[in-house]
Amino acid sequence: MTAPPYRLELRGITKRYPGIVANDDVSLAVKPGEIHAVLGENGAGKSTLMKIIYGAAEADAGTILWNGEPVTIANPAAARRLGIGMVYQHFSLFESVTVVENIAVATPGKFDLGALSARVRELSQRYGLPVDPGRLLHHLSVGERQRVEIIRCLLQDPKLLILDEPTSVLTPQAVRSLFAVLRKLVAEGCSILYISHKLDEIRELCDSATILRAGRVSGTANPRTASNSDLARLMVGNELPDIHRDPVPHAPKARLEAIGLSAKSDDPFGTDLETVSLTVHGGEIFGIAGVSGNGQAELLSLLSGERPAGADMVQLDGKPVGDLTVAARRARGLAFVPEERLGRGAVPAMSLADNTLLTAHAAGMIRRGLIDRQRVVGFADAVIARFGVKATGPAAIARSLSGGNLQKLIVGREISLKPHVLIVSQPTWGVDVAAAAFIRQSLIDLSRQGAAVLVISEELEELFQICDRIAVIYQGRLSPARARAATNVEEVGLLMAGVGPSFRPAA
Amino acid sequence: MSADLLVPILSGTVVAATPLIYAATGELVTERSGVVNLGVEGMMLIGTVTAFAAAFAGYPPIVAGLAAAGAGALASLVFAVLALSLATNQYAAGLALTILGSGLSAFIGHDFGGASLKAITKLHLPVLSDLPVVGPVLFAHDPMTYLALALVAAVWWFLYRTKAGLVVRIVGEAPGSAHAIGYPVIAIRYAATAFGGAMAGLGGAYLALAYTPLWVENMTAGRGWIALALVVFAAWRPWRILIGAWLFGGVTVLQLFAQGIGIKVPSELLSALPYVATIAVLVAISRNPQTLRLNAPASLGKSFTAQG
Amino acid sequence: MRIVLEPRPAPLPLMRIGAPIIALALTAIASSILFAALGLNPVKTLRIFFIDPLSTANGISEWLLKASPLILIGLGITIGIRANVWNIGAEGMFTIGAIAAGWLAITFGGGNHAWLLPAMIVAGALGGIAWAAIPAFLKVKANANEILVTLMLNYVASLLLSYLVNGPMQDPEGMNYPQTAPFDPSAMFPPLFDGMRINGSIFITAIAVVLAWLFLERSFTGFQMSVGGAAPAAARYAGFVQSRSVWIGLLVSGATAGLAGMMEAAGPLGQLTPVLSPGYGFAAIIVAFVGRLTPIGVVFGGLLLSLLYLGGEAVQMTLSLPASVTRTFQGMLLFFLLAADVLILYRIRIRSRA
Question: Which DSSP category does B297 fall into?
């Protein structure tokens, strides 16, 4: 019997969710021992497609062929029995139990944690994925967690491994060691489906690529030979929009300062901050890079006022505000865009109008304790128009907007408050390329009008695109800031991994 | 304190704790799967009336107990349809169950008004039951008292030593992840909820069959709610349920004895002690937010709907 | 085959009003089955339950008289639940409000003071507030679950009342019955019509409806509380103080429950007895849900639940069914309502799996 040409073949996969078609007649084929990229921007339908292959979602139409045979994959356990493993972008791990227990829940067979631990150790040696099976998961860094997910897949001796945006949480150096592991697997005959929107990675790693746009296959390519702009055009439909950036105005003044900010995390799984100091000037964008979980959440809560600090530790326009509440800091010109859109930056079940009232109420919307509806709707209308939010109007429910449109509304709302200082966390997470470019441009424009903008992001590409100075947060400490022109991705990457000049408080 | 007072107090404590152990241990499993069922009081009441009716009709206690467990589980499934399949607010669905359960139990029990049963026989073990002090306190109770202890041990073993128990815990922590790796979250929560219902039914049955085998409406008198508080007190760990239940049993029995020996405090105010004690322990355990963060199932009370 | 909840692209506002009607119809169907099982004619029984009580002027008076406290308490509970603050201790706050007002009535009742009734109104509200301050304080300062604390305090309040009417507040000429002396007319709401029990206290409820509407639908504080209930992280982000919502949610519902207790004592009861409320505090939770957590809706919810009480009394008298039939119906109604509410946000699809 000759081996079938493809390990996995999809034919005409279609999946509809209410209001959207996530996958429309998608076909692709993966050969044994091949790394096949699925490329597409956020919302193109990559994750849905992978869930269908892994049995976590059910296709409405189409066929899946496994080694040439049509199969029905009813659930992830069935996928694992076939030999399909999946590493989720946001992981499918459990904080409160140990590494080996995390692995046991996805491993068939006898429930013997001792024997399983031994196998985990053996695999982790063989592939260079160091991890201690007895540790509680919440003690692990993001990189270690990914290793746990990968080992969990490898235990089942997979024939096809799916990785969904595996590098979004890794330092550049960790990405390299991940690639080494993947190449080793491929050499042993495993196939890999590699989902990403990062062109450079795909070029470095993958043998072939299927590109998705708006749920449909827009083309296939050999990533080694195709040019960046070819791939980008297939992904986005046109060239990547340009970002326009004026030079920083001279004689800037300090608008936001953190001075020796230290705090114990109030989350038992969080990171303590140690003497973080930074200065953001009017007219500039200051970026903080770092793998998530290194103190970003704690720093943000102290800067925004959700947690109080010592009065002098946080200064707005030279005045101490560290002991002030969120409301009092907002009254002094601080605005803030959190990383979670639904549930934090916006109330999912409320209208867009009510969601502008959320933080813009001081803009004349309240009279004698009562809400002036007309003003609220007027403000919302203005934000929707100026920032190109696609919605039926101010009465639309926040939950019904796409990620990009809701983010435009939130960023637009905060910018419309004409803040002196704007703090933005993950400005373009899960946002489509066009909206991301628009948001980045809006931040640059705001800064050039004299505001100080602080951006915290895990995307180095983004930080290098819009920031004037960049610092790195690692284990609760902040590196000295570098001018963008004086540093590069490699150096920042080393700092993100805790390597490089010591993390001493910046002057 | 002399032994002739100590013995009935300690022995009474063990008895008073038993219905709480059943109801709280059941609810603990339910909550470990991420579901808060505020209907414990209602399910207990349904258990009392079922057990009473069965025993009244002449069935042996074991049948009455099983019937009560079945009725409690059935009642919990009504809650489960709402809170799990239809993803309604769990608090509201649980309250509805408590209101419905108390109404139904009074409605069905209407005809039993004032009727009484013969309490289930207490064990008499040779030698052990006759030991001074230790005998009557530890070795002369009815079988359901011992079964309650076995239940706690079994639940501990299940949660921490079996794969199924591990799965219940991860479903309570991150249902989305559990679904992503292929566990039927809703079905697992159904099972955990039904177990909680069955145990609440048994706790109710204990009241009717052993504790006060005389029909009165609302026989549980808030024990279902105290059981809910016990789960928090226990920080979701089975063994601590025992400590909590004995503590409450002790308070209940002590105030009864205080009333009996004529302490100069109005009996109504003494009767309020168990409820005040519940508040006190809730405050004591909740004061440190870290305790709850580290022990409470992370998705407790949150609805889960699978996309797919 | 399996049942799948499919989110609607946008919520269906019509279902918000439709759901209570569906729930009522389902309750009627389920109760018909129950009646038929008991050997009663369902149509006749439903008529006795839902129609007959409202067929006389006095019936209407009784209907409004019972609806008034239900609406009042329901308003307070609504304000709390909007902020995700669950007060299930209205029963206890009701009791303490009645005790506070009753103490004034007994102490100053002989003097025919014009200030007595207004003072009792204030005392009733303050009594409820004081009782509600306990769970509010414990929630804010010690993070103690308000559901369990308010519930426990129901039992404490009920035992306290029992102690008082058996002891310090007992009627010395009452032949040792556990009750206080009857209130003086100056300590009671005057009836609106001769021969009927409906009295001036319904105006308090009417004013409360308007105030609650203003607060929830128009005030910024009401908006802040709703944000805290719908998305606590968004409230923290926007700088809304969560503990303020807890205080307002509990104290307002304490005030309305205490007022309702005072109105009941200074109205139809005219004295304090060991049991003051036929479960109004719990029924008001259903009122709030039937009322879609809106003040106007609560009026309809209160009227419906009041009718359930009247119907329960009617079948108790004419068909000698147990009083607990009311509670059973209340439970069913809430169940069916919660189930029907799913249709606001979801479509129910039945899918077969290949």
Answer: -
Q: Report the relative pairing of strands A314-316 and A319-320 from DSSP bridges.
A: antiparallel
* Nearest CB partner across the interface for A57, out of B178, B289, B307: B307
Taking alpha carbons only, the member of A237, A241, A239, A238 closest to residue A213 is: A237
Distances (CA, A) of C349 to A57, A195, C1, C6: 16, 32, 10, 7
Distance CA A430, CA A436 (A): 9
A350, containing H or E segment: none
Q: How far is B300 from chain A (nearest CA, A)?
A: 14
User: Taking CB atoms and an 8 Å cutoff, what residues of chain C touch B78?
Assistant: 335
Encoding tokens for residue A157? 């001796």
B166–A97 C-beta distance less than 8 A: yes
**CB-closest option in A325, A349, A369 to C230:** A349
Q: Which residue from A79, A105, A266 is facing B170, i.e. has the nearest CB?
A: A105
Q: Which residue has the tokens 């309250």?
A: B95
Give how far C210 is from chain B: nearest CA, Å: 26
Ranges of beta strands (E only) in chain C are: 2-7, 346-351
**Which member of A306, A344, A371 has the closest CB to residue C223?**
A371
DSSP E strands in A31-177: the ranges are 35-39, 61-66, 69-71, 84-87, 160-164
Name the residue type at position A58. Answer: E
**What stretches of A18-93 adopt beta strand conformation (E)?**
20-30, 35-39, 61-66, 69-71, 84-87
DSSP string computed for B123-149: P--TTGGGSTTHHHHHSSS-HHHHHHH
> How many angstroms separate the CA of residue A285 from the nearest CA in chain B?
36
* Chain A contacts in chain C segment 176-235 (CB below 8 A): 214, 218-221, 223, 226-227, 230-231, 233-234
Q: Nearest-CA distance from B152 to chain C in Å?
A: 23
Distances, alpha carbon C340 to alpha carbons A240, A350, B79, C293, in Å: 48, 21, 14, 15
Chains with 3 or more CB pairs under 8 A to chain C:
A, B
- Could you report the average pLDDT of every consecutive run of 10 residues in chain C (354 residues)? 69 83 92 89 90 92 96 97 95 98 93 93 98 97 94 96 93 89 93 91 96 96 95 94 94 98 96 94 95 95 95 89 88 93 80 54
In 3-state terms, what secondary structure has residue A28?
strand
Residues near B294 by beta carbon (within 8 Å), at least 6 away in sequence: A268
Q: What is the C-alpha separation between B293 and B106, in angstroms, rounded?
A: 39
pTM: 0.91
Q: Which chains lie within 8 Å of chain A at 3 or more CB pairs, if any?
A: B, C
In whole angstroms, give the CA distance from residue B230 to residue B220: 15
Nearest chain A residue to C216 by CA: give it: A370
Residues 6+ apart with CB under 8 A from A118: none
C-beta separation of C92 from C124 below 8 A: no
pLDDT digits 0-9 by tens, C153-172:
999 999 999 999 998 999 98
Scan residues 249-308 of C and list those with Cβ closer than 8 Å to B.
282, 285-286, 289
User: Is residue C88 within 8 angstroms of chain B, CB to CB?
Assistant: yes
Question: Amino acid identity, residue B239?
Answer: W
Identify whether the C-beta of residue A98 lies closer than 8 Å to the C-beta of residue A137. yes
pLDDT in tens, C83-129: 999 999 999 999 999 999 999 999 998 888 999 999 999 999 999 99
Contacts of A17 in chain B (CB under 8 A): 307
Amino acid at B118: K
DSSP B84-122: IIS---HHHHHHHHHHHHHHHHHHHHGGGTT-B-PPPPP
- Residues of A in CB contact (< 8 Å) with B are 17, 51, 55-58, 75-77, 79-80, 88, 91-97, 101, 104-106, 111, 266-268
